[in-house]
Amino acid sequence: MSIDRILACGRVPGLFLSAVVLCSCEKVVNVDLDQTEPQLVIVGAVTDQLAPMAIVLTRTRDFFSSQSPQPMVSNALVIVWDDLGWSDTLKEKRAGTYMSEAVQGVPGRSYSLKVVADGKEYSAVASMPPKVTIDSIHAEPIVEFNGRNGYDIDIVFRDPPQPGNFYRLEVHTKVWLEESFKWGQFILADDHLANGGVLTCRFRASKDVHPGDTLTVALASVDRSVYEYFRTLNDLIVSVENPVPTFPGNPLTNVTNGGLGYFAAYAVDIKSIVLQ
Questions:
Q1: Distance CA 108, CA 131 (A)
Q2: pLDDT for residue 22
């Protein structure tokens, strides 16, 4: 199953906001596509789901390099700890992938990451927000202009009364919890124009989706730094997919010392619906 389009996310009822053009503006670092010094890329997260945690380390390469995929980084030291004294040194299970035993993060705690690779130290800090739960999921059968059948899938949830909440939503045909939470296409949302209100976010699914299929929705509450990473990542993707790409630069990162990527702490609510 693929999600063909991300339609909207906004306050209910009535006004829908853009799912990808959101409220804040940040500086994005420009990069020289022809010649760039290789940089460490860190991708990983702690979640409140009981599952192994994975931190993946790679190196960047020149944009026009024939080398593919990005080189993995082995033999690094990777440590994660929280603000109450828990810590774990992750083990390299395969090239560039460092994993913990099963771990379950706790909303309200702060998590720190330390990576030492090739003699250079990097760090990142992420806070796990309180979990926001999905109120309901609605799937409406539709027929598109090309005659293809599909569904508009609405996810409804209530934003907490305190301001400054950020979300990432996904729809899958199965729940992915092995090796930490894995991401695909997504909606980003915040409470800039809907603080304390009811939000609805809509996906359109019309390829390889049939009655009787089970769709799983994951609503992740994220902190601002992770939200900004994915917001600027989306800007980059849109730019590259343009007929005349502009290549604005790297996504904003919470990794220090010249590293790229992100380290996140997610509180995730997961619900499913069977399509009728």
A1: 9
A2: 31
